């Protein structure tokens, strides 16, 4: 027994001596001599140059720690910078006992101030795609035939990191700053806790929760997710599991999000818009094998709602997208509001004497017809009530189909007792593209539609008929407009309009015209109208029209003639008002002056000016009046009245305008009037002044 104790004691002393001797040897060893071997191994594995500028240090204990500073890994040959990775300092703490058996179990890995550049070239190849430059020898291939055993890691900590991503295809750069990031687990089969705090475009972003287990992540095993993301005032929750995380298969996730102002998320991308919210969203994401579905989608924005399903099949040569959405109420103001800054800002006017810059409305960039062939889609949307610009549309629906480059859009809705439907087709299967517009509106109640949203001071009544029958061919939007052929008709029936609020018809331009031709426009009074007509035919993008735009009010008839050139994006339109009936003053009155109004210039910034011909004519009339003692005014007024169009709307519609026939009494009286050799006397006889 005593001998056994001596043997065991000797063994213990021997082991302890060996350990002490080993530690002494390790501590006295200069590990920097192994830098060359380490960099050679990195080169063989990645094909990149690993540089270690600092000293390699090893702290020996039951948990040995390796530390090194000034580490960099070179970038791809085509990269925009010499290095893909630069690290100020790196440290790894390991467990000692597993090392004795050839296993590596890392307690913690710490990266301090790493700078990581991820980028793609013009072909979409990433700089993270690495591999040895030279082919492996047979010995190397044999030694690597067995998969290398990955080290076990309990915790990864990153501090003050900067990630830069450059998209070589799109030419876009994204920068992310990480203040602190941790991923830790008590054991390899315990849940992996993640914590992230950083910033994106100066907005704080936080992520916390659990992502599977370290063992599951290393072996591509199913993982469970339970994450909360906070950014720009929004909170997003993700729960569920992924069966094959590296392949993106077997998704079964539940998503939810909420925000008081979801528009703040746009600031993450550098955009600034007005408030949109409050916002709530819930949905499930499922699928795999390149087939995915966002189901049970339920979104609420302000007072609007949206629900339905979205599926994407990416498994085929051409992706297939199917969307089925619906709303009880969708108000465009809830989802596309104007920012308070934009609403309050006064429009900037050019300095006096400086002509306003004319900008093109129709882009001349070639249509990306291949984009129409990049995917096939079926989109269906329905809304019980859709509110757009205060107009209420009911039973709204829109069907969009895209197949092999052929785009078809079919809108339909009811409005104030009338209906609207039709289709717009863009055929991009061949170049040039072909556009066809076929839309019809019947008895659309403008006034009744506005009343449903509480707007009662803009338009009353106004049953409207609409007909668009147009087609075009071109390789750009400008080309399509330049080749436009067909007919457009807008026919608004009897009603009344508040002249001071005609901005919805065309902004300051229309307001300016109305103020010139309608006395009540400056007073903000309602102006009763019998009809408003726009009846234009286009030939190769040009509409030359004579009295095809008309407005008839209680005191004024207005007809418009001129030319609209979509190819050159110009217009030259004269507006001719004439007082109605016996209430019209004779001579050059408000109506006469209004006849000088002319709208001309580029479509993007037309101006309201004076018609030179009408001005000269009016001036000649004044001179003649002085010379003839006023008799020329009387003659001109009677001539204008005789030639005036009593029904400009009928004229605009292509119907013959007829004036009211004189009464029998008037005919009898006129027959009894003797003829006069004096033309002035003859004119006076018409008024019973001749004796």
From TrEMBL:
Record-annotated AsmA domain positions: 6-257, 301-544
Comp. bias regions, Basic and acidic residues: 123-139
Keywords attached to this entry: Membrane, Transmembrane, Transmembrane helix
InterPro entries assigned to the protein according to its UniProt record, in alphabetical order: AsmA, AsmA-related
Signal peptide segment: none
Bias type Polar residues, positions: 335-345, 656-676
A GO cellular component entry from the record: plasma membrane
Membrane-spanning parts: 6-26
Protein name: Cell envelope biogenesis protein AsmA
């Amino acid at each position: 027994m005593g001998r056994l104790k001596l043997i065991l004691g000797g063994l213990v002393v021997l082991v302890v001596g060996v350990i002490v001797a080993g530690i002494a040897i390790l501590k006295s060893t200069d590990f920097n001599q192994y830098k060359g071997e380490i960099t050679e191994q990195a080169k063989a594995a990645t094909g990149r140059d690993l540089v270690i500028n600092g000293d390699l240090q090893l702290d020996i204990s039951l948990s040995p720690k390796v530390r090194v500073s000034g580490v960099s890994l070179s970038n791809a040959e085509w990269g925009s910078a010499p290095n893909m990775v630069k690290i100020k300092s790196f440290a790894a703490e390991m467990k000692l006992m597993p090392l004795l058996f050839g296993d590596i179990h890392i307690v913690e890995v710490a990266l301090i101030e790493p700078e990581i550049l991820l980028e793609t070239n013009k072909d979409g190849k990433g700089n993270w795609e690495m591999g040895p430059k030279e082919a492996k020898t047979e010995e190397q291939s044999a030694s690597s035939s067995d998969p290398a055993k990955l080290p076990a890691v309990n915790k990864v900590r990153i501090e003050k990191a900067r990630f830069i991503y450059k998209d070589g295809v799109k030419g876009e750069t994204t920068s992310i700053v990480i203040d602190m990031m941790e991923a830790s687990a008590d054991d390899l089969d315990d849940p992996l806790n993640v914590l992230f705090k950083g910033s994106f475009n100066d907005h704080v972003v936080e992520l916390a929760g659990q992502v599977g287990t370290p063992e599951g992540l290393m072996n591509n095993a199913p993982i469970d997710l339970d994450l909360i993301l906070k950014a720009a005032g929004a909170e997003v929750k993700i729960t569920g599991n992924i069966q094959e995380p590296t392949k993106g298969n077997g998704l079964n996730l539940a998503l939810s999000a909420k925000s008081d102002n979801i528009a703040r998320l746009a600031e993450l991308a550098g955009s600034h818009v007005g408030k949109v919210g409050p916002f709530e969203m819930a949905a499930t994401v499922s699928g795999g094998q390149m087939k995915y579905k966002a189901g049970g989608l339920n979104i609420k924005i302000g007072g609007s709602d949206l629900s339905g399903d979205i599926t994407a099949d990416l498994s085929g040569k051409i992706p297939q997208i199917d969307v089925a959405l619906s709303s009880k109420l969708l108000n465009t103001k809830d989802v596309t509001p104007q920012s308070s800054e934009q609403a309050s800002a006064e429009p900037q006017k050019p300095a006096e004497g400086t002509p306003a810059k004319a900008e093109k409305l129709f882009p001349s960039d070639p249509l990306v017809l291949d984009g129409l062939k990049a995917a096939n889609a079926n989109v269906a949307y329905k809304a019980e009530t859709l509110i757009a610009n205060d107009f209420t549309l009911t039973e709204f629906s829109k069907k969009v189909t895209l197949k092999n480059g052929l785009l078809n859009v079919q809108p339909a809705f009811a409005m104030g007792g009338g209906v609207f439907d039709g289709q717009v087709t863009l055929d991009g299967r061949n170049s040039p593209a072909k556009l066809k517009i076929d839309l019809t509106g019947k008895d659309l109640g403008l006034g009744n539609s506005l009343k449903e949203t509480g707007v009662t001071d803009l338009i009353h009544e106004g049953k409207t008929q609409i007909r668009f029958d147009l087609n075009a061919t071109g390789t750009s939007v400008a080309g399509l407009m330049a080749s436009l052929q067909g007919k457009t008709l807008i026919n608004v029936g009897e009603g009344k309009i508040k002249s001071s609020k005609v901005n919805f018809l065309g902004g300051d331009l229309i307001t300016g015209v109305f103020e010139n031709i309608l006395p009540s426009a400056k007073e903000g009074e309602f102006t009763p109208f019998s009809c408003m007509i726009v009846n234009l035919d286009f030939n190769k993008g040009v509409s030359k029209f004579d009295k095809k735009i008309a407005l008839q009010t209680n005191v004024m008839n207005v007809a418009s003639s001129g030319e609209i050139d979509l190819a050159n994006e110009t217009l030259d339109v004269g507006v001719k008002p004439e007082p109605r009936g016996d209430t019209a003053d004779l001579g050059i009155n408000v109506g006469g002056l209004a006849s000088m109004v002319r709208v001309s210039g580029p479509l993007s910034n037309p101006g309201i000016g004076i018609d030179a011909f009408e001005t000269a004519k009016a001036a000649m009339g004044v001179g003649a009046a002085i010379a003839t003692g006023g008799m020329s005014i009387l003659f001109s007024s009677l001539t204008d009245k005789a030639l005036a169009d009593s029904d400009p709307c009928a004229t605009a519609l292509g119907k013959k305008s007829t004036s009211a026939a004189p009464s029998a009494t008037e005919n009898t009286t006129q027959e009894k009037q003797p003829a006069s050799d004096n033309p002035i006397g003859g004119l006076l006889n018409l008024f019973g002044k001749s004796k």
